[in-house]
Specification:
By secondary structure, this protein is an all-alpha fold. It is built from 8 helices and no strands. The model has no long low-confidence stretch (mean pLDDT about 85).
């Protein structure tokens, strides 16, 4: 019974995870195209490394993600699952793919850019909520901050502020794009993330409960 339940969970949760990662990556790509308005601290770092060192923005996303996964693995393995590794590779790869396709709106340096930026942030919030609701592993950044929080016994909120502030400073020193939306990003994205996360989590759990009941019923009838 336990094995059947695990197979069922995989069938339901992985599609949500992949869909969420694609949405999240698409949102990042949208915001990068209007980066003069400011982007998320982690993306500021990735863009700064891309401009100073080379490679691609997605490649730096993967490199930074894997470094964080390694640190999290050393500190607390409980936050590292298959989805954590896949997140690091898929987000970076999808971002590069969307930017390579070159079909997203370009910066116009008008009010339209603000609209594009807000849409991108909303898409990131939706995508982040969906893939986290799948419950197959925290993202590299979330896992890193959670493991640091556990190790130090510090509130997650404070760890997030300190971590992202440090990342922002490094990205700024590398020449990454920092402006107004870098500082308001979280205020737009977080409420959307929370709403979508809770909705999707309940939806997934309801599907699993229904499927489990059906299987138990079928097994009972078969006997």
């Amino acid at each position: 019974m336990k094995e059947r339940r695990m197979n069922m969970i995989g069938i339901i949760r992985w599609p949500f995870f992949v869909l969420g990662v694609i949405f999240f990556s698409f949102g990042i790509s949208v915001t990068i195209n209007v980066q003069h308005l400011g982007i998320h601290p982690w993306d500021v770092l990735n863009v700064g490394l891309y401009e100073k060192v080379g490679f691609t923005i997605g490649t730096w996303n993967i490199i930074c993600g894997m470094i964080l996964v390694t640190v999290s693995w050393i500190l607390d393995k409980s936050y590292i699952r298959l989805g954590t590794f896949l997140n690091a590779f898929l987000v970076g790869s999808c971002v590069d793919f969307f930017l390579w396709l070159d079909f997203l709106p370009k910066a116009t340096h008008s009010w339209i850019d603000i609209f594009i930026m807000v849409v991108g942030i909303i898409i990131m919030g939706v995508g982040g909520g969906i893939y986290n609701a799948a419950g197959v592993g925290s993202g590299p950044r979330d896992g890193f901050m959670l493991s640091i929080s556990d190790k130090l016994g510090a509130p997650i909120g404070k760890v997030r502020i300190v971590t992202e502030s440090g990342v922002l400073v490094i990205g700024l020193l590398l020449g990454g794009p920092v402006f107004i939306f870098t500082f308001v990003f979280t205020f737009i994205q977080s409420p959307i993330f929370q709403f979508i996360y809770l909705k999707c989590k309940r939806f997934i759990e309801r599907i699993e409960a229904n499927k489990l009941e059906e299987r138990i019923s079928d097994s009972t009838v078969a006997k």
